Each structure stands twice: as structure tokens, then as C-alpha cells.
Amino acid sequence: MFAKLFRRYVATILFLLSPLVYGQDEIRFFLPDFPPYTTMDQDGQLVGIGIDKVTAILDTMGVKYSIRLGSNHGRALAELRRGRSDGFFMASKNAERDEHAVFSLPVMINRWVWVVLTGSDNDFSASPDSAFRVASLLNTNTDKWLKTSGYKRIDPADNIVSLIAKLDDGAVDAVFVAEEVFNHHFEDNPSYKVILQAEKAFGIYISKEYLNRHPKFMDELNTTILELSPIEP
User: Fold this and answer.
1) More exposed terminus of the chain, fewer Cβ within 10 Å: N or C?
2) If you write DSSP's letter for every residue of 180-223 in order, what string do you get?
3) How far apart are CA 231 and CA 61, in angstroms?
4) CB neighbours (10 Å) of residue 211?
């Protein structure tokens, strides 16, 4: 009887202590500079709609985390592959990322859109068989999609301002981007017409190496996403 009670006591203590032990292993995020989702303000503070969403999820989970900001999604994946980070957001799924990390449930929906000059939208064809020249942002899924889909793709731009400049200068006939990225600088600008192509799940990638150490983390993360940021079907 005493032995049975003692085992229950030990099990209870371990259960109560496990979140504390788990919380000591800080999860490190390295993010792309991808306004308005993840960026830095003039005071050096990390800001963005993605920052707000994900930090609320992590805080609810009670995990320790750190966040660094870099250049783009390619750099974020490289940091994860080299073991210098444990995850990144906001991102949509692709096969290259899936090799090294696991994608969460969607935190929000990312709308992929074509942007053309007003007046040319009736002539534009969103088909890889057309002769239209298109471009996107460096190391983004939208750029990878253009490449793999066979579009007449021009070299990608480093940021949305230089990308739209390609459109204004006639270097391309259309640009292909996340709608919120375009809206951050050019919303309601009458010079441009936006055409929806697709809606993609936007979520969090966690490295497989981190999940090997914490196999329950993804289930806990997805449960918290459902509680705080459920995506309507």
C-alpha cells in the first residue's frame, strides 16, 4: 500500500514539474523581414501581425522563446537547417521546408494575388502559357510557385517597393505576392489592380530536431492554435 501511494506521489510531482523542465529548453525563432507579418520598427522592436499572433500562442503555452529577424525566408530556412534556430513564421508549406521542419495548423490565411497596372487587367492572363513577364519576392513561396509552374519569370526583388517598381517601369507585366505584403505599402492605390490567384494556409515551421527532443510540442502548439486562432473552413 505504501509503495503504491509513493509511486502515485512521485508521478504527481513529476507531472507538476514537467512544464518547468520543458520550459527551460528555449525555442529559438529566426524570422524573415516580411512586413506586415514580421518586421522591426524604428525603435528596434519586433512588430507585425504575425508576431502578435504567434507570441500570443507561445505565451499561452508557457514556453520560453527568443526571436531574431533576418532578411528573407531563404535565410530563415538556412538558419534552421544549420541548427541555429528551431523554427520560423509566417510561412506556407513547400517540399523543401518539409524536409527539415514540420508545419503547424494554419494561424491565418495568406492570399496570393497578381498585381497589374490599372487598365491592363482585362488583357492580363494568369497562365504560364502566356507571354506575360512576371516577378515576385526573393526566396518566397510565391516566387518558387512561379518558377515551378513555368511562368516567364523575371529575377525576384528583395522587397515589395522594388518589386512594384519593376511593374511601374515596365520590366514586368504583373507581380505575384501575398496580398497583405502588397497592401502594407500600396493599399487603395488607384494605379494598381489586384487579382486573386489562391488562398494558402499560413503557419509556423518547427524543426524536426527540436521535435525529436520535444515530441509533444507540435500537438500542444496545434491545440493552442485551435483555441486562439481557429481558421474557419
Assistant:
1) C
2) HHHHHHHTT-TTEEEEEEEEEEEEEEEEHHHHHH-TTHHHHHHH
3) 19
4) 17
Of 19-23, 32-36, 66-70, the range with the lowest mean pLDDT is: 19-23
Inter-residue contact 28 to 85 (CB < 8 Å)? yes
Q: What share of the chain is helix, strand, coil (3-state, %, to 5)?
A: 40, 25, 35
Dmax (CA) for the chain in angstroms is: 84
Percent over 90 (pLDDT), the chain: 85
Strands 174-178 and 133-135 come out as parallel
Q: How confident is the model at residue 94 (pLDDT cuts 50, 70, 90)?
A: very high
Work out the pLDDT band at 121, boundaries 50, 70, 90.
confident
Angle CA(88)–CA(32)–CA(28) in degrees, nearest 5?
A: 35
The C-alpha atoms of residue 55 and residue 47 are separated, in whole angstroms, by 11
C-alpha grid cell, residue 120 = 491592363
Instruction: Give mean pLDDT, residues 96-102.
Output: 98
Per-residue pLDDT, averaged over 27-43, amounts to 97
Cell of 130: 502566356
Q: Which pLDDT score, from 0 to 100, does residue 24 have?
A: 56
- The secondary element (H helix, E strand) that includes residue 65 is strand 65-69
Distance set, CA 90 to CA 73, 76, 148, 172, 206 (Å):
9, 11, 21, 27, 11
On the question of a cis peptide bond just before residue 40, with omega within 30 degrees of 0, the verdict is: no
Residues in Cβ contact with 229 at an 8 Å cutoff, skipping those fewer than 6 apart: 53, 57, 107, 108
Return the C-alpha cell found at 25: 529548453
